[in-house]
Amino acid sequence: MIFQHGIDFTHGSTLPMFLLWIVVFVVALLLINKGKLNKTYSLIIYTVVVVLGGVILGSVPNLNLSIQTLLPAIGVGAPFNVMLPLIIVLLLLLLTVFLFGRILCGFACPVGALQELISQINFKSNIKKQKNVKYKIDISLKTATIIRWIFFGVITVLAIVWSFSLLQIINPFAGFNIFTNPLAPLFLIPGITLITVIIASFFIYRPWCRLFCPFGALTSLVGRFTRYKYVRTEDCNDCGLCETICPTHQAERDSKKRECYYCNRCVTVCPQNAIKLGK
Fold first, then answer.
1. Distance between CA 94 and CA 86 in Å, rounded?
2. Most buried in the list 56, 97, 107, 227, measured by CB within 10 Å?
3. CB count, 10 Å around CB of 74?
4. Shortest CA distance to 42 belongs to which of 97, 119, 135?
5. Is the distance from CB of 259 to CB of 250 less than 8 angstroms?
6. pLDDT tens digits, residue range 153-197?
7. Could you tell me which of 167, 166, 189, 165 has the C-alpha nearest to residue 177?
8. Residue burial 256-279, b: 16+ Cβ < 10 Å; e: rest
9. Can you tell me the distance from the alpha carbon of 87 to that of 82, in angstroms, rounded to the nearest whole number?
């Protein structure tokens, strides 16, 4: 199995990747903080990220790139100076999660943005409309966590013990390359994975993010200690609408919000405007 020894910072797509990360992160954070992240703005951001990051740039930003490269590097005993850039990038990404939660996962990730766009069909921001949805599979946080960590353990053992990067083979991020290079056999399996994720997203909210994403697994740990996240203000009257509409069951008052993707359904449905970004 061939793997990339580190992130090539001279590669043509690397600079656009980091620029897209930064721009989307800042724009989304500002809109969230000012309480102006409405459905229109969200859909615009998701569409731009899918088209620009996914279709045009071909799977960037890839939030799993550091993990995808680091695990097999550990397996073959790569020098520390080779792995150091990967570790630094991964820590910086996790730092954003520690400070502000899953904003990158929610908006800057092409696979995440694509799933969020599709989720609009069966996961509504309106209680009455949501009750009329028939084809929806609700997966509990406990079940999603178990599946996610089993998958993370499998890819880790395969990469470190047998130097086999299963993640590199099936990573749906690479599936976006079928738009620019549809005949390349290298992208066949990731393409199938991406198509599977697309189909599953009609019925399950963010199936890749919540069930299989390795970066999502690490993020769920760091997310327990996120500094700034959605909190209820004193205007909350405990009507429970936010808890009913939240697709990841993270709207409870005492929730750590470690699986909150800032989809804003809770904010939209709140009649008291009582959900704000805060400590």
1. 12
2. 107
3. 15
4. 119
5. yes
6. 999 999 998 888 898 889 898 888 877 666 666 678 888 999 999
7. 189
8. ebbbbbbbbbbbbbbeeebbebee
9. 10
The amino acid that residue 110 corresponds to is P
For the chain, the straight-line distance linking the first and the last C-alpha, in angstroms and rounded, comes to 45
Strand partners, 230: 277
| Nearest-angstrom CA–CA distance, 249 and 259 | 8
Q: Closest Cα partner for 251 from 127, 159, 93, 82?
A: 127
Structure-token pair, residue 254? 């005492």
Distance CA 14, CA 25 (A): 17
DSSP letter at 232 equals: E
Number of neighbouring beta carbons within 10 Å of residue 79 = 10
Strand partners, 229: 278
The answer to whether residues 174 and 59 touch, using CB atoms and an 8 Å cutoff, is yes
- What is the rounded distance in angstroms from the CA atom of residue 40 to the CA atom of residue 28? 12
Q: Give the pLDDT band (50/70/90) at residue 2.
A: very low
- Cis peptide preceding 61, ω within 30 of 0: yes
Report the candidate in 261, 270, 269, 268 with the shortest Cα–Cα distance to residue 229. 261
Please write the tens of the pLDDT for every residue from 90-142: 999 999 999 999 999 999 999 999 999 999 999 988 888 888 888 889 999 99
**Strands (DSSP E) along the chain, which ranges?**
229-232, 275-278
H-type alpha helices, 77-165:
80-100, 103, 110-119, 127-131, 141-161
Helix/strand/coil for 230: strand
